[in-house]
Design brief:
Layout lengths: L1 H14 L13 E18 L5 E4 L9 E18 L3 E10 L32 E2 L4 E6 L2 E7 L3 E2 L10 H4 L11 E3 L10 E12 L4 E8 L8 E7 L8 E7 L9 E6 L2
Antiparallel strand pairs: 1-2, 1-3, 1-14, 3-4, 4-10, 5-8, 6-7, 7-9, 10-11, 11-12, 12-13, 13-14
Length: 262
């Protein structure tokens, strides 16, 4: 009798399948806001005296040093998902770490910082120049910008004169030269940028999905992808996690979360 009751219970249990909700495209529908941080780096340019003069931008300055720093930028925005695999509209706003584009007063900076080319200061043979002074010197129709490494007067940074090898810095005379050329502005962009996005998305039954976005007002940007993980219920307050997906030629280190607001 007991065996027959046990077999009957087992039969009933095997006939009743677990009822778990499965996610679909409709699980991601509505208006969402998101906030993410993204790893970034920047290079600070230092002169021979350990003073910040700006940022490295692939324009090598003889005698100066570039140091790499890592930081995080903030990315916020909104997405409108239609429940059918499309991001019909959206916005984004990127806020950069100010240390990555503004000279830090704690870095013993040398004013003006960052250095801008041309400097707007025409060289004068009668003026006494102190360390850090910037001048524009013209030969023919070519103008170059130089920064004083040592105080001097009447010693022009004339790159075609016989004194060029003495007055202008090279890697063989750093202990005695007077001027080093600044080939380009030592700036590093602006505070951030913003724009709009559209795109597509996929959702698996377990809530995992991929969002592909196409941003505007983003020079050189390609389509960006994010892995998402949806919470089970699609309603106002629904949350999801976002992690950047890197592809060859397009690194994406962003990570964060979002919430349905409408």
């Amino acid at each position: 009798m007991r065996k027959s009751m046990l077999f009957a219970c087992i039969a009933v249990l095997t006939m009743v399948a677990p009822a778990f909700a499965q996610d679909t495209l409709v699980s991601f529908k509505g208006t969402y806001t998101f906030q993410m941080v993204t790893l970034s780096n920047y290079f600070v340019e230092w002169n021979m005296n350990g003073q910040q003069v700006g940022f490295c931008n692939n324009a090598a300055v003889v005698g100066y040093t570039c140091v790499n720093y890592y930081t995080f930028d903030l990315l916020t925005g909104s997405l409108v998902a239609d429940g059918a695999g499309h991001i019909t509209s959206g916005t984004y706003s990127k806020t950069r770490d100010p240390n990555s584009y503004e000279c830090n007063t704690q870095n013993n900076l040398l004013a003006p910082c960052p250095v801008v080319v041309p400097s707007g200061n025409v060289y004068s043979a009668t003026k006494a120049y102190s360390v850090g002074a910037l001048v524009d010197y013209t030969v023919g129709n070519v103008t170059k910008t130089y920064q004083a490494i040592r105080a001097n007067t009447g010693k022009a940074p004339n790159w075609v004169a016989a004194t060029a090898g003495t007055f202008i810095c090279s890697y063989s005379n750093l202990n005695s030269c007077l001027w080093t050329q600044i080939p380009a502005s030592l700036t590093n962009g602006v505070a951030g940028n913003s724009g709009t996005v559209t795109g597509t998305y996929t959702v698996q039954a377990n809530g995992l999905g991929v969002v592909t976005l196409t941003p505007t007002n983003c020079t050189g940007c390609k389509n960006v992808q994010f892995a998402i993980l949806l919470s089970p219920t699609n309603q106002i307050g629904q949350t999801f996690n976002m992690s950047g997906l890197s592809v060859l030629g397009n690194d994406n280190s962003a990570t964060g979360s979002g919430v349905r607001v409408k």
